[in-house]
Amino acid sequence: MTLPSNSAVSISGLTKAFGDKTVLAGVDLEVAPGTVFSLLGPNGAGKTTIVRILATLTSADSGEIRIAGHDLAHEADAVRRLIGVTGQYSAVDDVLTGAENLRLMGRLLHLPKPEADGRTASLLAQFDLTDAAAARVATYSGGMRRRLDLAMSLMGDPRIIFLDEPTTGLDPRSRRELWQVIRHLVADGVTIFLTTQYLEEADQLADRIAVLHNGKIVADGTPEDLKRLAPGGHIQLQFADRHGLAAAAQAVPDATIDVEQLLLQIPSDGSVGTVKHLLDRFEDQAIAIDDLAIHTPDLDDVFFALTGHPTTEKVAAQ
Q1: Beta strand 9-18 with 62-67: parallel, antiparallel or unpaired?
Q2: Measured between alpha carbons, how far is 308 from 295 in angstroms, rounded to an integer?
Q3: How far apart are CA 8 and CA 280, in angstroms?
């Protein structure tokens, strides 16, 4: 298979095993430039392994990978100059200040001192850390640490950033602050490859989502594409009395009836045309509806339908 040269990330036939355990069994992926691509999967599915391979931290057993047109197997140095990586756990040094962490990263990247100092000031401002620049990182909140971590991955001005569960452990406010940072990066043309255990995060940020299960990609598309893969969409109608409920049930024989709650549940994709057709039918038969609600499958439904696993987020909430 010839991989397209205009993709930010192109993967064909990627495999990886650790001993006798196969983690990746032929993964194919395409990520368009200047977009957010989210990789979902149960814990242990191999998401972090893919990130480590793409970031040149682990080698693949087989397959072809191109990052911004560069063959990963033969042009690893060129790839490293184009990418940034933020892992699940913060890589900042607690003893150093925020500014010192960034300048240290500049030295590791062999940036000239004036350029490193300029990038440090710019990134501190971009991530709203200027006021805390001289404070030791040990005093930072979790959200500040993650922003600094992401800022450090940008020190070399990468065009592709791999984020491996970057908001794990953050409170909801800090998570949404990081989402806003990611949106600004994409608006500037940066490509984001995101793994996450939070399906809401993927839904909010991703232009495309792929689901990894048993070593292979089992679904790939926009969030809306994936939601159409899961069953369970329905329209729920509530009535004032049993007479109205009975008349509606007779008009829609495939509906599920809840006599106690005076509810009628009708399988549906929830589209405007479907709802209008249903309401027109009831109006023609003079059936009055007290309340209407539409349920369409969300990414939780999709994830469970494709993998048979509840999300980590749901498990943690139980």
Answers
A1: antiparallel
A2: 21
A3: 48
CA dist., res. 280 & res. 271, Å (int): 14
Q: Walk me through the domains of the chain, giving residue ranges and CATH numbers.
A: 9-224 (3.40.50.300), 234-295 (3.30.70)
Largest CA distance in the chain: 80
Nearest CA among 303, 287, 114 for reference residue 218: 303
User: Residue 218 is encoded by which pair of tokens?
Assistant: 């089992």
Lowest mean pLDDT among 56-60, 136-140, 142-146: 142-146
pTM metric for this prediction: 0.77
Beta strands across the sheet bearing 70-71: 21-31, 9-18, 62-67, 70-71
**pLDDT score of 312 more than 60:** no
Place of tokens 């640490």: 145
CA dist., res. 198 & res. 133, Å (int): 30
Nearest-10 crossing angle of helices 98-108, 113-126: 140
